[in-house]
Queue: 2 jobs
Job 1
Amino acid sequence: MKKTILTGLRPTGNLHLGHYFGAGQNWLKLQDDFDFYLEIADVQALTDNFNNPEKVRLNVYEVAKDLLAMGINPEKVHLFVQSKIPEIAELTVFYSNLVTIARLHRNPTVKTEISQKKALFGNDGESITYGFLGYPVSQAADITAFDGDLVPVGDDQLPLLEQCREIVRKFNSIYGETLKEPEQYLSNTSRVKGLDGNDKMGKSLGNAIYLVDDEETISKKVMSAVTDTNKIKKDDPANPDVCMVYYYHKLVNKDEDQLNNICSECKKGARGCVQCKKELIQAMNNFLKPIQDKRKYYEENPEEVQKILDKGTKEAREKAIVQMDKVRKAMKIDY
Ligand code: TRP
């Protein structure tokens, strides 16, 4: 029996290289070995975007196309839309009795997000909704609805996973052994830096390269990338390890010889940054071309995308219904 893996992402924008190298690439490997549930978390996206439903709706399809273009295989992965699984909402209601408000406020991920909101809106937290504060409960429902063994997420999501495990333990101790405690699936992927040298590539940071970026956009972005600031003249020797252009070459450039040349020539002062950036633009376009070609197919065939989501959602729902039956029995509400 294959183990069950579940992960999700919020449909709030197109996927970028941070998603690809930080998570997606790993998902492509997992799809062969696990029973893989991949959730487009529109309900969770609405906790932050309830006043912008058009944005969430549009991005459900954008993210689906990005994932398929990237190589997520709908024959292997159950790619589904969260709001189409009512059992998740149902579980969220029952789990909400098992977690205190104080505990949610102490969740480090929630805490960070609340302080960001306070900084943004300049109030004392009056705008924090019940739904937002409770999204870790809903995420616990996401995971347990499919009896997930493993959750491949980055460290920033660990407090949410820990909260899920606590809910599971509480549930089992009150209603009897019913749910499984999920574990983090560790992978060797890590956070991807931004073109500006920021530790994280992110939409809100304005430093991302999107899978859908065309050649002109990529060219502009790469030309503005941060290089070794100690290098002033073209023939100054420099340190490629602090250069974002070299960093991205290592991610996308498949030409080993060119990579080695870049490193040694840069150290000797035998190449200029403009040449290096031009080569990166080429390598980046080569890397993105097959993804964009594949995406084009789905853009031209939106009904295919809908079919894939319908199929994945149907499969996911079948599993959630079985799990919900177990929960109802345990809670003595199986009237
Ligand atoms: N909170 C996750 C994020 O912001 C997305 C998510 C929703 C998720 N449901 C999930 C991740 C379940 C793992 C498991 O990226």
Note: Residues 6-10, 39, 41, 44, 139, 142-143, 151, 153, 157 surround tryptophan (CB under 6 Å).
Job 2
Amino acid sequence: MPPDEDCRRCRLGDGRNNIVLPCGHLDSYVVLVGEAPGAKEDLEGVPFVGRAGKILNGLMAEAGLDRGKVMITNTVKCRPPGNRRPKAEEMAACRPFLQEELKGKRFILALGLSAAEDLLGKKMVMKEVCNRPVQADLGHGNVTIVVTYHPSACIYRPAAKDVLRNALKMAASYL
Ligand code: URA
């Protein structure tokens, strides 16, 4: 079940315009999990339609991954004020919705450390864990999880861009 339209499970509900629900092919085996909606996503109610979304779209195209063939979602469905990272308690409050979205998925690409830490329940160092598939059971059987850079981290970092593009290629190979 998605959140109620007046969801107040955490304080992020206070400032939102829209709850940002998953987009793309909702029944795909492959899901990309971002951090949290930004300003444009909050206005349009769709994940990754702003600046980070443009970077993601470009890299997906280069990786041969069709945006319409995967599900795209976020750890939290409401925009944190000032685009700060979502707090652990906000991710925990939204977790039942993410959990439901992940049913039936076989490959999860965690975009950035917020998503990675929410999914895997531990702190990580990106350069130590990126693009190394791990197996985990998040409650619906075994899935492959790949942690990689968030598109925003790629803005001035070509090396991070290469890593994210390679992770998107891994996702493409699961389709
Ligand atoms: N950043 C995210 O993590 N998710 C979005 O939907 C947009 C920007």
Note: The CA atoms of residues 112 and 164 lie 10 Å apart.
